[in-house]
Amino acid sequence: MTELRSTEPTRRSAARRLRPRFEPALLALTTCALLVGAIAWAAGAANIADAAWITGTVVAILPAFTWMLLALWRGRTGVDLIAVLSLGGTLAVHEYLAGALIAVMLSSGQALDSAAQRRATHDLRALLEHAPRFAHRQASGSLETVAVEDVRADDVLVVAPGESVPVDGVVRSGVAVVDESVLTGEPAHVERAAGEPVRSGVVNAGAAFELRASATAAESTYAGIVRLAAEAGAERAPVVRLADRYAAWFLPLALLLAGGGWLITGSAVGAVAVLVVATPCPLLLAVPVAVASGMSRASRIGVIIRDGAALENLGRAETAVLDKTGTLTAGRPTVLDVVPAPGGDAEEVLRLAASLDQMSQHVLAEAIVTRARRGGLALTPPSDAWEQPGRGMSGVVGGERVEVGKLAVPEHRPSWVNSALNRAMLDAAAIAWVAREGELCGAVLLRDPLRRDAPRTLRRLRSAGLRRLIMLTGDRSEPASEVAAVLGLDGVHAEQTPAGKVARVRAESDASTTIMVGDGVNDAPALAAATVGVAMGARGSTASSEAADIVLTTDRLDRLADAMLIARGARRIAVQSAAAGMGLSVIAMMIAAFGWLPPAAGALLQEGIDIAVIANALRALRAGRRDQITVPQGTGALLHRFAAAQGALRETLHLIRDTADLISLDPGSKDSLAALRQAQQFLDQQLVPHEKAEDSQLYPALIGPLGSSEAIATMSRAHAEIERLGRRTATHLRLAESRGHIEGDQVADLLATLYGLYAVLRLHFAQEEENYFTLAEAPPNAGEPGA
């Protein structure tokens, strides 16, 4: 990490080290000179009083002159020149008290601004200070402490309780309990099981654990964030240059009014009085204070903004271009459904596939194993397992040869195979076929689910000022179009290469200020081409994070909407601070030009203006997120509990559709009646009680945060419809059991009831997940598909 910090110019680093000491010393000297002069004046020693005040003025004029030269070298004019002229003018016309007051004003303004900058950038500096420096590495059966720069990939490290994880890696054994709040802003502890990745910079909140390094320190997550944080605030935003333009016309106006004051009052004192109140050095520094405050505010919610220019552009953006995979979708495929062959069992198909896929590192295999383990299935260790890239796995499970993946489909396809293929096409899902002893026994359908927070986030982005929302993806047009339709996007461009993404982003950027949001390596060029590049840094690539202007360190897309509101608030406050301060200074100059404001009183007035405007700029620390709904801790716990319960129900929801499919094929069979009986049992014992519990426990708790009972009225109405359809299904079941089978006169209405119930439940679950469950921080099963 030392190597990262050393990239800053030596001169700038030295100035930053000296500034916290110089400014308090300057304030102390000028204040002492003012007080000594006041005491001497009160004692009747006028000469001593003048000498003290002259000393204070001279002490201030030297750094003011330096600041003026530095400003001119940087292309800024006006502000510091006025300060030098006013200080020199008070000495020339023997207004020594006014000079001492101006000296105190300048030094206190600089000290106040420095303190404001330190407060505003506290969170960004905290990232640098938290950077891991050492690691405990296993070597020859013992532990050695090494510098973090010496850690290499595949090294085995031990992370002690309370220590920061030094590099990106994978938990080697046991379960790691880590606090990721430094990176994400989320206070909850997270458990990482063996084989799961852990990012550098997080804190071990549990027992010691072993970590196998997957990257060096320079290539790790935290190093990339440190590089961004080190650059934060280094460049001024356009709104700061706007303040410089204010100063460019403010200087001639001040000189003109000073000349007018000389003519009106017939004395140089009138001109000096104008220059005194025209000393807005701390005033114009209130603009970068507001910008830095906005960046600090964003960093608290897990949004690292590279510089002020990115914040200002984010605040005035009109178009957002979003990648699909990992940005609008979870980026992790999940099991959508399991289709068994006739006479087969879905759980057995899943168990066979997951047992074999335990030996695979493929992302689809991981999804199958995760689903099986969450369902409590007992997996069998496979033998003679091998993986053919691009095809799938083959091995022996329980003495039977099992294959999973892209298997050959019979030339004369059975109806259930066609049904699975049609379902995959309609749902834009991938298929993993499962074969036992050479015969297809089922299929597992997988899909990358939409993020739960995506619909709400896109609505909030529109309310924050975005007019166009466009999706770019390298994926096929079918799944891309489905996502675009669900989210109500203004356009979608599928099957895009990295070069194609760059061309699309440039076209949008030429038309308006454009945000590009992505997470993959192929998104990095497009992020760099956009007006503002936003990287999903929590699981995104290092390349995308390095190319971006803004990094979301938490895996929540809604943080972008929060950041936009913060940016707009900070930009508004910055312009407001500049305009209000300049206006007040002009009014004070006009009063002084008529001789109604002596230099000493003008100095005190200008001091008050400067302090007031800088204090106003600090409001940017609280800017934004006003439309964010917050829920009490108890309600958040309820949301988590019901979200987890609904996740389990969603995985069993296919029973209703499967029952309807079976009845449509063979309504009079005993299998159809048994399936209907099982579906009704699911409704009576699990689904309906869950919905009733939501009505009696969760929904009343949400009335307060949502502001009205009307916000939950439609959801309660859906519960009533679900219960009505459940009773209708129960009536059909009783009638069929009295007859011993399902009669033909029942089929049409029963199918309409079951398919209707399935559709209502899918929509209802999706609405609850979008409207309610996303209100809680880090919702459980956040990556699961909407039902």
From TrEMBL:
The UniProt keywords, alphabetically, are:
ATP-binding, Cell membrane, Membrane, Metal-binding, Nucleotide-binding, Transmembrane, Transmembrane helix
Q: Which SUPFAM superfamilies match?
A: Calcium ATPase, transduction domain A, Calcium ATPase, transmembrane domain M, HAD-like
| Short name of one Pfam family | Hemerythrin
Q: What domain of life is recorded for the organism?
A: Bacteria
Record field: transmembrane: 52-73, 246-264, 270-291, 573-597
Task: Report domain P-type ATPase A positions.
Answer: 130-229
Q: Which GO terms describe its cellular component?
A: plasma membrane
Q: Its topology with respect to the membrane? A: Multi-pass membrane protein
> Which Gene Ontology molecular-function terms are recorded?
ATP binding; ATP hydrolysis activity; ATPase-coupled monoatomic cation transmembrane transporter activity; cadmium ion transmembrane transporter activity; metal ion binding
UniProt keyword Mitochondrion present: no
The places in or outside the cell where this protein is found are: Cell membrane
Which InterPro entries does the UniProt entry name for this protein?
ATPase_P-typ_cyto_dom_N, ATPase_P-typ_P_site, ATPase_P-typ_TM_dom_sf, ATPase_P-typ_transduc_dom_A_sf, ATPase_P-type_domA, Cation_Transport_ATPase_IB, HAD-like_sf, HAD_sf
Q: Which residues form the Hemerythrin-like domain?
A: 641-776
NCBIfam families in UniProt: ATPase-IB_hvy, ATPase_P-type
Family under the similarity heading = Belongs to the cation transport ATPase (P-type) (TC 3.A.3) family. Type IB subfamily.
Q: What is this protein called?
A: Heavy metal translocating P-type ATPase
